[in-house]
Structures are given as C-alpha cells and as structure tokens.
Design brief:
The chain is 24% helix and 12% strand. It folds into two domains: 1-209, Mannose-Binding Protein A, Chain A, CATH 3.10.100.10; 211-241. It contains six helices and nine strands. The termini are far apart. It is globular and about 55 Å long. The chain is α+β, with helices and mostly antiparallel strands and 241 residues long. The strands form two sheets. Strands 1, 2, 3, 4, 8 and 9 form a six-stranded mixed sheet that branches. Strands 5-6-7 form a three-stranded antiparallel sheet, with no helix packed on it.
C-alpha cells in the first residue's frame, strides 16, 4: 500500500547504521548469465531522504554510499547512481543508456532488458518486474523520489524544484510507486521536505569467467595429488623392473 497516497509522505527519524555487512541474502550475479555477460543491478534505498537539492550529484552520492555499506555490493567495485531527474539532468542521461545490458533487482528478477526507451526498456513506460528490494535485501515499504516522467526525463516537479507547488516550503517533487507500470516513476507529487527513499542502479557489471575460489583450490589440489602419484609410480617402476 502506498504510504504517500494514504498519509502523505511518511516522516520518520532515520538512525544511521555504521555497517550493514550482515544484510539479508542478496543476489549480485543473476542465475543464467554466461561468463563475460554484461548486466546491471537496481534497488531501493533503505534510508529515507529529503528531495530538496537541485544537484544530481547529491542524490548519486547518497545512493552510492548506501550501496557500499553492504559488503557484497561494495565488492562489485562499481559506481551506483540515482534513477532520478533534476531540472537540468534527466534520469535517462544520469544513469546512461546501455543497450543490451539487462537490469536485475537484488533478488535476481529481470527488471528491464536495458536502460532504454524501447519495449522492455527501463524507460519504455513499464518494467518487467518492480524494483522493490532494498540494498539490505528487505522489501521496500514506501514509494521513492524520482522527479522523473515514464520516459526518463525530468517531470514538471523534478528533484530539488522550488517552483512546483509554489515556494520552497510548498515545493513538490514527483515520486514513484513500487510497481511495474509507469507509476513506478510518476505516481504523483509531494512536498520535497518529507522523507522517502531513492531508486539506485549500478554501472555495467560483467560476469566473471574465473572459477570460484573453492573450485580453483580443488583443481590445484587435484593437480598436486596427480603429480605426487606420478612421481611414486616412476620410483616404483625404477626399483621394481
């Protein structure tokens, strides 16, 4: 149920968490992707924020910081960006259109075929599956700030806007509902001095072609045992013709 629709934006005092390495199980490499495949990951921030800044870098920094509090996400070594628009930067430009790189949530569900506007793309007007999981692996319970229309451009009420609704105190910002239709980006507008999460997305990730450490260790161990066995066989054949 949408928190925005029923009570306006839910205002909460959020206590910062120094380390969240013990998050619920998240999937950082979706099943079925071959080595060398490109992909991206998307999530909803567990932290809640105001949407009063007109600088897209502030939103990107918040998303990147949140993602990197999770050990498994930090290990990916990517830069995380906000799926949001200010008056001067469109969301589709902020995250970059990477044709052919599928986007998954942190449960391994295919969210979109890529970050484009064609059918199946993130900005086509709908998602293949809603972005509803936070970086901690928990489901999001509230809508998210976007400042964006379904095509990935700045909405009439972008992030940090002070004109929409009139005056700084009453400035409104577009939010999206946790859904798979076009309301995921634009479900209404609410005062930006309330609190809500953001959507975040990774840069391009590549499935590693290297064997898992455990598999590599087994392979090395097996090779060592074979080598020892061969040496013993040679000694036996020399002393026992």
């Amino acid at each position: 149920m949408s928190v925005f629709k029923n009570t306006g934006l839910l205002v909460l005092a959020v206590v910062g968490i120094a380390s969240r390495s013990n998050a619920d199980t998240i999937i950082t490499v979706p099943a079925g992707l071959a080595p060398g495949s490109q992909y991206r990951l998307a999530f909803v921030t567990a932290e809640l924020y105001f949407a009063e800044s007109s600088n897209i870098a502030d939103y990107n920094n918040d998303v990147n910081t949140d993602a990197n509090t999770i050990t498994a996400l930090a290990a990916l070594g990517t830069t995380w960006l906000a799926i949001g628009s200010t008056a001067t930067v469109n969301a589709i430009d902020n995250i970059g259109v990477d044709s052919g790189a599928p986007i998954y949530d942190l449960e391994g569900d295919l969210v979109a075929n890529d970050a484009g506007t064609e059918a199946g793309g993130m900005f086509s007007g709908s998602l293949l599956y809603p972005i509803e999981t936070t970086e901690t692996g928990a489901p999001s319970a509230t809508d998210a700030w976007t400042g964006t229309d379904p095509a990935g451009s700045a909405s009439p009420c972008p992030l940090g806007d002070v004109a929409c609704g009139g005056g700084t105190a009453g400035a409104r910002v577009t939010y999206g509902e946790i859904a798979s239709d076009d309301s995921w980006l634009d479900d209404g507008a609410s005062p930006g001095n309330n609190l809500a999460p953001y959507y975040g997305i990774s840069g391009i990730l590549i499935v590693s072609a290297a064997p898992e450490p455990s598999s590599l260790g087994m392979a090395i161990g097996g090779a060592a045992l074979m080598c020892i066995a061969r040496r013993r066989y040679r000694r036996a054949t020399r002393t026992n013709p």
